[in-house]
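Below is a filled-in request sheet from our internal design queue. Each sheet records the structural input a requester submitted and the sequence that came back. We keep these sheets so that new team members can see what a complete request looks like end to end.

REQUESTER: design group, bay 2
PRIORITY: normal
MODE: inverse folding
CHAIN LENGTH: 145
BACKBONE (tokenized):
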């Protein structure tokens, strides 16, 4: 399986047609298939739902208000597409996550990136992202959008 874990920034670019990377996200999504699906994990699902219901994000992209109910409907719509899959946590994820996240300095922004990097590495899948920071994780296959 050539599945690709989509970072939440790619899902957000796909969700808002006025996002500067929308067309690139749409092209990537259109190339996904049952055999090579676009993946959600629990963290990207949760982040997608949180971000699409954030008024500042809605305002940034000229969106009408999006309720929690509408956000959930949109997530279910995406998740039901044949080229989308939801993938649960792999066994032993926490060990790899800790290996990536246990820095000798405080960095609140590393937690999510380290989690996604560990998730993808444990499954041996690529991550599609807009975030160059993910390229810093050793052993991770990152594709920049």
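RETURNED SEQUENCE:
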């Amino acid at each position: 399986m050539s599945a690709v874990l989509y970072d939440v920034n790619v899902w957000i670019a796909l969700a808002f047609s006025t996002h500067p990377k929308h067309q690139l996200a749409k092209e990537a999504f259109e190339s996904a298939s049952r055999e090579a699906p676009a993946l959600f994990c629990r963290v990207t699902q949760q982040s997608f739902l949180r971000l699409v219901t954030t008024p500042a994000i809605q305002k940034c992209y000229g969106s009408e208000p999006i309720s929690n109910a509408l956000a959930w409907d949109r997530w279910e719509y995406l998740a039901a597409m044949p080229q989308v899959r939801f993938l649960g946590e792999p066994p032993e994820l926490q060990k790899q996550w800790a290996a990536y996240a246990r820095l000798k300095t405080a960095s609140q922004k590393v937690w999510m990136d380290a989690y996604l990097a560990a998730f993808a590495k444990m499954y041996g899948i690529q991550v599609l992202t807009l975030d160059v920071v993910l390229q810093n994780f050793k052993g991770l296959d990152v594709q920049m959008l």
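SHEET NOTES:
- Strands lie at 4-6, 38-40, 84-86, 126-129, 142-144.
- The mean pLDDT is 95.
FILED BY: M.R.
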